[in-house]
Design goal:
Layout (H helix, E strand, L loop, with lengths): L8 H68 L10 E5 L5 E13 L1 H18 L4 H10 L10 H8 L8 H13 E15 L5 E3 L12 H7 L6
Antiparallel strand pairs: 1-2, 2-3, 3-4
Helix pairs in contact: 2-3, 2-5
Length: 229
């Protein structure tokens, strides 16, 4: 390269322009290289995650189907309660392993519950409010709905326990409607797995990323001495 001192103004301008262009090209290549590496990392991890997700979907479906298929045999041999609606658990003969099918359900009430509420409120206003304010307030409280305008199943169960307290036709009709309106809806199903640890306690086999502890690279090498060579 010629000594810059010996260059003319035109040549200096040309050299400056060349250097600026070279810097831009270098920055462009660095940016492209970074973006290519970033995209490969994101794409590889997301594709791996998708494959793992599909494996877990297939495994969960398989586990639920197998447990449901075995349920009748388990009831026959008394391994699970015959009236169990929330799910059931099975344990290996040596007690070291356990699998649990969890059914999450929700109690709902259809339009007949609205009719029942109207009948009760009418009955309360006519026959109870002036005679027994305490009972009026108690029953009214049991009819209160939650933030999603839904009846509280526990409150309705409590209400039904007092079915025989009044003989009024409206009260009896309302009790009948609440029973008919009740429906249990399955929200979700899950399978949990456990294995006894060295303290003889059931330790869950964690299948969610958020709950899995991070293993440091040094620990991986220590547990896999061949790979660390």
């Amino acid at each position: 390269m010629e000594n810059l001192v010996n260059l003319t103004d035109e040549q200096l301008q040309a050299e400056l322009k060349r250097r600026q262009q070279a810097q831009k090209e270098a920055e462009k290549k660095a940016k492209e290289s970074y973006e290519k590496e970033r995209d490969k990392l994101v794409t590889d991890l997301v594709l791996d995650a998708h494959n793992l997700y599909q494996l877990m979907v297939n495994f969960k479906t398989h586990a639920i189907n197998e447990l449901n298929a075995f349920h009748e045999k388990a009831k026959k041999y008394g391994d699970v309660r015959s009236h169990s609606k929330g799910g059931f658990g099975l344990r290996s003969e040596n007690g070291a392993m356990k699998v649990k099918l969890v059914r999450n359900t929700k109690a709902e009430y259809d339009e007949r519950a609205d009719m029942a509420e109207d009948l009760i409120r009418e009955f309360l206003a006519d026959m109870v409010k002036k005679r027994d304010q305490k009972v009026f307030n108690l029953i009214t409280a049991l009819l209160e709905r939650g933030k999603h305008n839904e009846f509280n199943p526990a409150n309705i169960t409590t209400l039904l326990k007092h079915e025989s307290d009044f003989t009024d036709e409206r009260w009896q009709k309302a009790m009948k409607l609440f029973k008919e309106a009740h429906n249990v809806v399955l929200i979700s199903m899950n399978v949990e797995f456990y294995q006894k640890n060295n303290m003889d306690k059931d330790e869950p086999i964690i299948l969610t990323l958020a709950s899995i502890p991070v293993v440091e690279e040094e620990e991986v090498k220590a547990n896999n001495p061949v790979e660390s060579l």
